[in-house]
Amino acid sequence: MTRLLGWWRRIAPTLVALGVALAVTAVFILIIGENPIAALVALFDFGETPVAQANSIGVWINRAAPLFLAGLAVSIGFRMGLFNIGVEGQYRIATVVAAGLGAAIVLPAPLHILVITLIAMAAGAAYAAIPAILKVTRGVSEVISTIMLNAIAIGIAAYLIRSPFVDPELGAGENVATTRLPESAHFPGLNELFGVLGLEEPRRPVHGFVVVAIVVGVVVAVILSRSRFGFELRASGLSALAATANGISSRAMVVKAMLFSGALAGLVGLSDLLGSAHRFQPDSFVAGYGFTGIAVALLGRNRPGGIALAALLFAFLDRAGPRLQSEGIPPAAVTIMQGIVVLSVLIVDEVARRRLRRREERRARAQDQATTPVEVAS
């Protein structure tokens, strides 16, 4: 019963925040002159035909996997007290390097995919090491350095796909891209799984990399809750001075946390790369996962399970964007809704935290008064 009550207290603020976000979004839709009821119906409309419904579910899955990985990457820094805004640049660099080097090697199918995955993680970790080293050696804020490195990553990626990784068949024109990955590097999709479940198969590829994302989430959850690294990460995030007093080097933990975060960020772009794109091309590269991952991590309270639910929610809202637009609601409404959800969660959390603190203070005063001996007048 106590565990159930504790679980309810953890999710109650989020449920309240979602209700507040829905109400505020409804007011926004009224202000722009549209019907909020029609918007709500469109939000849960997956299509009229079985094929359309399958395609919509496929888009949901394809969007959720990279958002989940981005949220995990951001959450590692949050647990350490670091604000790693550089996930956006880290997964861009990792995707370019993985696409270029992956196309240059020839290996059997499972091994080829594994090597590309390790290359992407190494590239993401290497790019994340830059702000980590700057912070521990020069005291440079990771917020400033990662923001700047995001912009630099765009230039580095543009250079890599125009010089060392360019597809010779395309040349260096406007439609420049990396060499296409061989079939041994194509990650199997989940389209046939729909047929096994008795559903219509989607007409678009459903990325099977979501299975890897789930495995990564489980591994990260175990590492954070059951390993020495996870304990040191939490201890350093709560109090660097106390952690140092117990023999934990805060400087080393900053580097380790950023490397771990960057390695997870390197996985973000592989879902699209190995599942459907099979090359890096600026026009088809999906940007923005890193920034949205910050909101996903906040909404998920830096816990892998919560981040998974937050990623599903944000992917669900993204999937509904075209349907909302058909009802006359601008696409920006989805972004506004996502922002309201995060803001509502933060506000409700702060209100709940303050109420809990006041309750604990009243309880402590009551206990002090009960234990204080009463002076008897002589």
From TrEMBL:
InterPro entries: ABC_transp_permease
Transmembrane segments: 12-33, 64-82, 89-107, 113-134, 143-161, 206-224, 254-274, 329-348
Membrane topology, from the record: Multi-pass membrane protein
MF-aspect GO terms: transmembrane transporter activity
Primary location group: membrane
Pfam family, one: BPD_transp_2
This protein's record includes keyword Nucleus: no
This protein's GO CC annotations: plasma membrane
Alphabetized PANTHER family for the sequence: ABC TRANSPORTER, PERMEASE PROTEIN, GUANOSINE ABC TRANSPORTER PERMEASE PROTEIN NUPP
Protein name (record): ABC transporter permease
Species this protein is from: Phytoactinopolyspora alkaliphila
Upper classification of the organism: Bacteria, Bacillati, Actinomycetota, Actinomycetes, Jiangellales
